[in-house]
Design goal:
By secondary structure, this protein is of the alpha/beta class. The chain contains 24 helices and 18 strands.
């Protein structure tokens, strides 16, 4: 009596392991999606339609991804001759290959869970970006998670599944020819090409809930889609205006009362910023704190996390404190870009990591023209994210972990760098040296302690080491300790401390650009020069440096896109919250989001929870403003027009002092 294998066509026998792989991959995808759904929690409403969409569309993307992932096994099934294929060695090759493949797929699924826990999304451009820096990323994983235990459990699960499903990996061939197998491969190739050309990761984004859209995708597919879009040309992928119209609009948008254009060239944004009276050449210490979300502060969190920032909370009443500030992005490089160049984010790669990013018009240029020593000080190794190269080629002296001597005390370090207190010790060293040389200094300090694995020096904070709460509490302690140590320095009274965040601790939300995930604090602290006050006007991260320069009464040439918030007329405030491909423009209570394929979304965001509802009718003026800002910024960088020019260093005459008001005549 013929067996089931004998009644199956030879081609089906030969390619049966592909069915095993497909079923395994679909089941892994479904289980991953279930776990991610639970991890999303209240982010996904209890609506069966959302669930059906996530799992139905998700299944489609899993099958599409399988077509690409199946190629290695397909090539083996196609090319190996029958005699070798059905031999004992061929059978073991299938078992071992199947086990290795299954382990890899399970490892990717586990990695997705970790990535979702950190960023609230499937793999995206951040995952692509991190792949370049394997030392830091692998070190971060090893320090944050029990990697050995996880790998052991995944290996055991792999062996169990392969053993139980070994029938699907049986090497059978009832007599196929190479030509017959080639026809299968040809069809597979045609399907692969059609899917590669016709299916985009954005096709799934059809609901009003960002978590559901993410659940509907496939991590591997999203990873490669992000890889392909890492260099997005604005004019090719986004909504545009005629160049002359866009530049004219931006010239109007960046013009402020104290600024005068130096030429009538419609494509030139160079302005002379003129203030009355002498400049104040005070020292400036800019601290961009890793992941310091506004809601870590007691007044924004209502103490839900406990009182983990007592020193920063106290500093709020001693500083000029800005409580309505929004970051440019969700990555450190976006914060560095905003704080050094004062430009809206470019789609895809940050300018910090882009090619041809040298000699740009930067904050350091303005300070250097006044005799300052400008340093970028980082506690890790600044090759990460191209930081050292970028800053060293744009007016700064790059100082990093390599500049800490072997004999100097290091209280703690992890894969990202030394503890914040040791970073501040390094910064104080640079400040002392500049002061000894009779130079004012501008320091941009970038911290690392508030980053997973969240390990901090012992006996500094009561929170459990390795937790976010401990890292935030230590961030708070180390800033207070830094200011305390700086108070003993002869230059303290003439130093302005500017403390803000590079971005928030989380970027996940139910809307495409959850505005609450961009809310960051800003303190400007200088007891002898800047009286405490609360500033609640909406403000962009790109406005920080122009505002500081305004407080110093600088008169200078500028091509910054940001504005001195105290010169910007009320009602003109805006911010640029963005992801690597979704470009946001926040004006008042309306958020416009520009997306690839020239898509557009305009919503009214909820500033407390990040939700959003469509803004109807669409305010076309804001759409055009958003388009103009991003189009012009991308255009200027692409064509090398953001560079520092020789005329930028020429002194700008201060504005005339206002005429005294005559006393009224005596009656």
């Amino acid at each position: 009596m013929p067996t089931a294998y004998q009644t199956t066509s030879p081609l089906r026998q030969r390619f049966r392991p592909l069915w095993w792989l497909a079923i395994s991959y679909v089941l892994i995808g479904a289980l991953t999606r279930i776990v991610l759904l639970f991890m999303a929690g209240s982010g996904v409403p209890h609506n069966p339609l959302y669930w059906a969409y996530a799992f139905g569309v998700g299944l489609s993307y899993d099958l599409i991804t399988f077509v690409f992932l199946g190629w290695l096994l397909l090539l083996y099934l196609w090319l190996v001759p029958k005699r070798l294929y059905v031999s004992r060695a061929g059978q073991w090759a299938l078992y071992v290959g199947g086990a290795v493949t299954l382990f890899g797929l399970l490892f990717i699924a586990a990695s997705e869970l970790v990535f979702w826990g950190e960023f609230g999304t499937r793999f995206n451009f951040i995952a692509v970006d991190y792949l370049v820096y394997t030392t830091e990323v692998i070190g971060n994983i090893r320090e944050s998670y029990p990697l050995g235990t996880w790998i052991s459990l995944l290996a055991i699960a792999t062996l169990v599944v392969v053993w139980l499903s070994r029938g699907g990996l049986q090497a059978r061939d009832g007599g196929t020819t190479f030509l017959q197998r080639s026809k299968v491969v040809l069809v597979w190739l045609l399907v692969t090409v059609v899917l590669a050309v016709g299916i985009k990761g954005t096709l799934k984004d059809r609901t009003d809930n960002a978590y559901v859209n993410e659940l509907s995708g496939n991590g591997v597919f999203e990873f490669f889609a992000a890889f392909r879009s890492s260099h997005l040309d604005y004019s090719r992928f986004y909504r545009t205006l005629p160049d002359d119209v866009a530049f004219k609009r931006v010239r109007e948008l960046v013009k402020t009362p104290e600024a005068t254009y130096v030429s009538d060239d419609p494509h030139d944004l160079t302005r002379e910023i003129r203030h009355a009276g002498p400049e104040k050449h005070l020292n400036v210490v800019l601290i961009s704190v890793e992941s310091l979300s506004a809601d870590f502060l007691s007044e924004f969190s209502n103490n839900k996390r406990g009182n983990i920032t007592p020193n920063l909370d106290a500093l709020t009443n001693q500083s000029m404190f800005f409580d309505n500030l929004y970051a440019n992005g969700t990555r450190t490089v976006r914060g560095l870009e905003a704080l050094s160049l004062s430009v809206p984010p470019t789609p895809g790669d940050s300018i910090v990591k882009a090619h041809n990013n040298e000699n740009l018009f930067s904050a350091a240029n303005v300070f250097n023209d006044r005799g300052y020593q400008s340093d970028f000080v980082y506690g890790g190794y600044g090759y990460f994210d191209n930081m050292n190269y970028f800053f060293a080629h744009n007016g700064y002296r790059a100082v990093d972990r390599n500049d800490i001597g072997k004999g100097e005390t290091i209280h703690h370090e992890n894969v990202w760098g030394v503890a914040d207190e040791d970073l501040y010790t390094l910064a104080l060293k640079q400040m002392d040296e500049a002061h000894a040389q009779g130079k004012p200094f501008f320091l941009h300090i970038m911290t690392t302690s508030n980053h997973r694995p969240f390990t901090v020096p012992a006996n500094r904070v009561p929170q459990k080491n390795g937790t976010r709460e401990a890292a935030v509490a230590y961030t708070d302690w180390s800033i207070a300790d830094f200011i305390k140590r700086a108070k003993d320095k002869p230059y303290f009274d003439d130093t302005v401390f500017v403390i803000t965040a590079d971005h928030c601790a989380s970027s996940a939300g139910r809307s495409s650009v959850p505005i609450n995930r961009y809310h960051i604090p800003l303190w400007i602290y200088s007891p002898k020069h800047i009286p405490p006050q609360r500033v609640s006007r909406q403000m962009a991260q790109v406005d920080i440096i122009p505002t500081v320069m305004g407080l110093l009464n600088f008169s200078y040439r500028s091509r910054f896109f940001g504005a001195d918030i105290f010169q910007l007329e009320p009602g003109r405030e805006r911010a640029f919250p963005a992801t690597y491909e979704k470009l946001g423009y926040l004006h008042s209570d309306v958020l416009t989001v520009l997306e690839p394929q020239r898509k557009l979304e305009q919503v009214k965001p909820n500033f407390d929870n990040g939700d959003a509802v469509p803004n109807t009718p669409v305010e076309q003026g804001q759409v055009d403003d958003a388009t103009a800002y991003y189009q012009v910024a991308a255009n200027l960088f692409k064509h090398g027009q953001l560079v520092k020019r020789p005329d930028d260093s020429k002194p700008v005459q201060p504005a005339p002092e206002p005429a005294p008001v005559a006393a009224p005549a005596a009656q």
